[in-house]
Specification:
Length: about 250
C-alpha cells in the first residue's frame, strides 16, 4: 500500500469518515496478499523501502500478469509490470482492457500514477546511442511513474564528444544522472568526471562480438577512473531507477 493511500485511510478513520472495521478490511492484505498458488504480492514494500512492488513480467503467463496487476492496482492505485513482450501485452490487454503498454521500455501499467512536477529538480537519463533507448526508457518511465521529473539526453556517446559537451550545462544541473551505454561503456566515466551529482551507470548488451553481451561495458564501468560512479547490472534500467529513488529520498 502506498504511503499516501495509507495516510488518507488513517485520516479518514481519525475524522470519523471511515469505521475501524472498514479500515481493517482495507489493511487485511498487509503485509502481503496471496494470489492463487503462484504469487505473494508485497503490499507493505512501499512502507518499508519507499518503493512499491513491481511485477517482473518475463517468464510469467499473461493470466498471471493480469491477475497480479489487477490485485496490485486495487491495493495501490497503480500496478507496473516490466519486461513484458508484445505478445504478452496483447494477451494481458485482452483480459485487462484498461492496461497500457509502453512498447519501447516493455512496461505495462494499470491505474493512475502521480503527476511528475513540471519544473524543479530533475533526473537526467543520458544514452550513448539510440540503441540504448529500451533500457534508458525503462528507467525514465519508472521514475516518472514514481513522481520524479526526468529529462532525457539521448545519443551523446563518446564517438562524438562535441555532442556530449554541448549538453554539459544541462547535465550539471541535474540532481542525479543515469548514464546508459553499451559498446565499451566509456560515457559513464566521462560524465562522472564532469558532474557533481550522483552518477548511476547502466551497461547495455549493445555492441559487437567482443562486447560479450554487455560484459565489456559492465567491467569498464566498474573500473571507471571517475570516482564515485555506481553501477547496476546489464540492461537493468529498473535497478537504476530504484537506486536513483533511494538516493534522492535520502537527501
Amino acid at each position: 500500500m502506498q504511503i499516501e493511500r495509507l495516510t488518507e485511510l488513517l485520516q479518514a478513520v481519525q475524522a470519523g469518515q471511515t469505521s475501524v472495521d472498514a479500515a481493517l478490511d482495507v489493511l487485511r492484505d498487509l503485509p502481503y496478499e496471496v494470489v492463487a498458488d503462484y504469487g505473494r504480492l508485497d503490499h507493505h514494500r512501499a512502507l518499508r523501502t519507499g518503493l512499491p512492488e513491481v511485477i517482473y513480467g518475463a517468464g510469467k503467463t499473461p493470466e498471471q500478469i493480469a491477475r497480479l496487476m489487477e490485485r496490485l492496482a486495487a491495493a495501490n492505485g497503480l500496478a507496473v509490470a516490466t519486461r513484458v513482450s508484445v505478445e504478452q501485452a496483447q494477451a494481458v490487454q485482452a483480459l485487462l482492457p484498461a492496461a497500457v503498454y509502453h512498447s519501447t521500455p516493455r512496461i505495462l501499467t494499470l491505474g493512475t500514477a502521480p503527476s511528475a512536477p513540471p519544473s524543479g529538480p530533475f533526473v537526467a537519463v543520458a544514452t550513448a546511442g539510440t540503441s540504448d533507448l529500451p533500457v534508458a526508457t525503462e528507467a525514465s518511465l519508472l521514475l516518472e511513474l514514481w513522481g520524479q521529473r526526468v529529462i532525457a539526453i539521448n545519443d551523446i556517446g563518446v564517438a562524438g564528444m562535441h555532442r556530449l559537451l554541448s549538453q554539459r550545462a544541462l547535465l550539471t544541473q541535474a540532481a542525479l544522472v543515469i548514464v546508459v551505454a553499451g559498446m565499451e561503456g566509456a560515457l559513464a566515466s566521462v560524465v562522472g568526471g564532469l558532474v557533481a551529482a550522483p552518477v548511476i551507470a547502466v551497461p547495455t548488451s549493445i555492441g559487437y562480438g567482443a562486447s560479450f553481451g554487455g560484459l565489456a561495458a559492465l567491467l569498464a564501468m566498474l573500473n571507471s577512473c571517475a570516482p564515485g560512479v555506481a553501477v547496476v547490472n546489464i540492461d537493468n534500467g529498473f535497478g537504476a531507477a530504484a537506486l536513483a529513488m533511494r538516493i534522492l529520498s535520502a537527501k
